[in-house]
Amino acid sequence: MQEAHDVHGDGDVGDVRVVAVDPRGDRRQVMRRLLEHSFQPEELAEADGLTSAIEVVGRCRPDAVVLEIQMPLEVGLDTIDRLGRMSPRPRIVVCSFRHDAATVAAALDRGADAYVAKPAGAAELRAALAVTAERPVRHRPPNERPVSPSPLRDPEPDVEIKATP
């Protein structure tokens, strides 16, 4: 985890409106403190699941949503799908203790813009939320998949194909 005084970085997060989504209230409070420490959000709202996330995002129109994907997992993935279809589409950052390759790939395939493993430091979270000229927020239609492959996935598995006689 980054040191507490490391709050100024290269990423520009400016006046950002953020919604933190986690089914556990104690973890939402930790996320709130980390977000407040990482930068000074213009607005910071909370939601405890899919339904409340859709309602809060629709009302607040945030720039970004920081989502714990374990709601259970399938509900977290559905939340990514639903948030990705909203207009305007927020940047979706998954911040989770669950960071195995299959879960990360599933989240990115469903529309997450970034995936940060917990415990996350201020610099990591700030970088994932940053909207800069080098890394703009891209509003993807919900049926479009990310163009570049995830570094966690091997696009061409090592499988040898043999012809049978």
Write up this protein.
The longest helix is centred in the N-terminal third of the chain and has 14 residues, at 25-38. The protein has a domain at 17-129: 3-Layer(aba) Sandwich (Rossmann fold), CATH 3.40.50.2300. The protein is α/β, with parallel strands linked by helices. Helices cover 33% and strands 15% of the residues. The model is unreliable at 1-11 and 132-159 (pLDDT under 50). It has a five-stranded parallel sheet with strand order 2-1-3-4-5, sandwiched between helices.
Task: Summarize the helices and strands and which ones pair or pack.
Layout: E1 17-21, H1 25-38, E2 43-47, H2 50-60, E3 64-67, H3 73-84, E4 91-96, H4 101-110, E5 114-117, H5 122-129
Parallel strand pairs: 1-2, 1-3, 3-4, 4-5
Could you list some keywords that capture this structure?
single chain, 165 residues, Rossmann fold, 5 strands, 33% helix
Shape: globular
Question: Looking at CATH, which topology of the domain at 17-129 would you report?
Answer: Rossmann fold
* Elements, N to C (H/E): EHEHEHEHEH
CATH superfamily of the domain at 17-129: Response regulator
Mean pLDDT: 78
Look at the structure and give the CATH class of the domain at 17-129.
Alpha Beta
Strand content bin: 5-15%
- Helix count, per DSSP? 5
Number of strands: 5
What Rg do the Cα atoms give?
Answer: 17 Å
Strand order of the largest sheet: 2-1-3-4-5
Question: Biggest sheet: strands, sense, closure?
Answer: 5 strands, parallel
Low-confidence stretches: 1-11, 132-159
Distance between the termini: 57 Å
- Summarize the amount of helix as a percent range: 25-40%
Which structural category fits the helices and strands?
A: alpha/beta
